[in-house]
Amino acid sequence: MNTMNANVAASAATSELDLARIRADFPILAREIKGKPLIYVDNAATTQKPRQVIERLTHYYTHENANIHRGVHTLSGEATAAYEDARRCVQRFVNAADEREIVFTRGTTEAVNLVAQSWARPQLGPDDEILITALEHHSNIVPWQMVCEQTGARLVVAPIDDDGALLMDEFAALLNERTRLVAAVHVSNALGTVNPVAEIVRLAHAAGAVVLLDGAQASVHEPLDVQALGCDFYAFSGHKAFGPTGVGVLYGRAALLEAMPPWQGGGDMIKVVRFSHSEYNDIPYKFEAGTPNIAGGLGLAAALDYFAALDFDAVQRHEHALLEAATARAHAVPGLRIIGSAAHKVGVLSFSIEGVHPQDLGTLLDHHGIAIRTGHHCAMPVMERFGVPGTARVSFALYNTLEEVEQVFDALEKVRTMLVD
Ligand code: PLP
Hints:
Distance between the termini: 37 Å
Helix content: 40-55%
CATH architecture of the largest domain: 3-Layer(aba) Sandwich
Bound molecules: pyridoxal-5'-phosphate
Number of helices: 15
Number of domains: 2
Strand content: 15-25%
Oligomer: single chain
Strand order of the largest sheet: 4-10-9-8-7-5-6
Structural class: alpha/beta
């Protein structure tokens, strides 16, 4: 048994998940980087893909490739059926009441922009407020700033405490009759904080506001049930959920989507086009102008099916064990400051080390085969809140092992000694 397999076997003994089998599903994990086995702990940036997803993409391009919705030939019919099956797969995954509530997008960013331009821009005016939280990724800040510029509405930000948890009393106090929309992250990519989203939805609805949740970091780490959450919109990206890049999802309540104008014009989003006037298609197609990422949609469905076949509670417990082990090791590193220690977190550990630039740390860890992320994580206001230009971030997925955690921190301690002492 080589070292890596021995490590996996050891970790399997401490996890309810069949880690050896799971890791074998992700071909890239067998790679070496600079002569060392890859340790991939940059999962908040993007997750790796199981061969079930890779094979789905290959199968589509090898056997089914055709444009959808418009063709009468067999291939087009098959591709259309597969794409609409993928939509139903997403519907089941998020537990939406109706498949028409699932809009395929390029990702979370496009989903948020869709709501900003199609729901918020036509509705809001100078007397209105959009309430976000201080934990947001740029993609749940900038689209609202643009809407505020376009409509005169005001962007209001609910603060967080020193642990990186949302101050719920302050959040509640900021809600008022002018609040038309609450846009909140489900899980912070920079800190790992899990927002109390059900409570956020309850309070926002009581104040008469519509709620969008950014689920980019939550979709495969936290339970996801849009009906139980009661949110009006929920956005997530395929590539952070073991699926392909360039595809994502906007869930929207049917009544809201039906009342919204389209935001991009083109093929597929229309029923009739005349030079005098065009008639728009029904939801969700009204929001899907042009040829979509067909293979991406199929790959996303394969990813969600793969994930749904696992024991979700065991996945959560495993990722939590990884976070606990990493946090314990981090506490023992001289000069290391953990940034983000909310009581409810997913497997994301952000930190800075006195006297060490995060980028140097990331570059030197790469020489050990270790992939971490460094920088502002597209959450500059979060960095500002903690008075740092950026952090180093280790983020876990279900295929990571406790041995990898040890290896990351062994390497980190060596690198720190090199840079500081
Ligand atoms: N929201 C959060 C919390 C994220 O972590 C990310 C990506 O890092 C996004 C939104 C944007 O996702 P995408 O780049 O896939 O559109």
